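Subject: sequence -> structure tokens, single chain

Hey, anyone have a minute? Need the predicted structure for the following. Not urgent.
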Amino acid sequence: MEPIVTPEEMAAIDRAGPEPVDVLIGRAGAAVARHALRMLGGAYGRRVVVVAGKGNNGNDGREAARRLRERGARVHVVDAVEAEGTRLRRADLVVDAAFGTGFRGSYDAPDPAGAPVLAVDIPSGVNGLTGEACDGAVRADETVTFAALKPGLVLIPGRAHAGVVHLVDIGLDVSRARAHRITAPDVAAWLPVRPLESHKWRNAVWIVAGSPGMTGAAALAARGAQRAGAGYVRLTVPGVAPGGAGAVAVEVVRTEAPAQGWHDTVLGGLERFKALVVGPGLGRDPATADAVRRTVAAATVPVVVDGDGLHALGTDAASVAGPQTVLTPHDGEFERLAGAPPGADRIGAARSLAATTGATVLLKGSTTVVAGPTGEVYVTTTGDARLATAGTGDVLSGLIGALLAHGLAPMQAAAAGAWLHGEASTLGPRHGLVAGDVAEQLPQVLDRVSALAREN
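Reply:
Had a minute. Here:
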């Protein structure tokens, strides 16, 4: 896992560092110089422009400039304020060391005149906490950041401004970081190995989803659970006979429940199941909302609540959800649960809702944020705009349900599910991807991750 700390947390870590600031600047400048040399393909005779501000970010840039000169590069250091809005002299590389993670306000970055840009810690003009970028913010090809990632490097639009991010250890203690970006080895370590002697009920998932005329979401959630390895998937569409549940895979076991009071049927039959998924396409009838709340409050297994299930909970989520509940809102559903939209500080928003509800909260977006009730956060950045199509969230809910059924803790199941979901989407077509494609790619991604676990 890669640690993520806020600018405020990073400032405290800097202050607590066991070594003088000059030593840390030396290490940071050396790291910037190393990556600059790689981007340049060597130093001798290469032209480099370093845009340096007044703070330690500028000092890191000036130290990198000194080291590059020692290697034979022709380096020109310009003052960030004086260079603002200008066009820089022609160079083979521009090093952006104007402003760091504490930047606030506006900045009109100089034109690099076609040269690639290497940013120091964070592209100047990007908010280190939220990822918001002013109109003139630097667009870097690569960024070297120190000790830990910053939220502004993983949240859009900051992530798009940063390019390829390199995390460098300069000797600061970030072991107390409470937010981390999830990587493939993390997911590989979490996924359990299925025992040789097993049976379908060992990781059975029950999905309560869909409604008359809205069965597609139910089918997609079921497919997500199946393709993520659930040995047995039961699908119940309240008020719809098994034969009327639409184009559901033949391996899914379809059962009946009344349109009203279906919670009694579900709660009375959970003893053999390991996870429950509630909500996709259920509709918003008041009786349905009541059944959702009763089910979530009384379920004896971990529960994923998605779609119309989240609408049913609303601000009552705090009274019915708990540590075995996973809530998976997009921004609109988040507002329904929290009473206000998430805002720019998405990590802080997810943390706040998790603390309020006592549940794990998966806040969907270009960067997915998973927060637990104790304040721990996992961030995933897999996937891309291909996931912005109807039904992909339904696949994700089934996928998380399957991971819960395999025994993963709620935060791990939610974060691993989001990571796998994003990876699966990138294996599909670049144009015309549909939600079913994501589900069908899950076995391939799981195989890759399992192979990684075996190698380690």
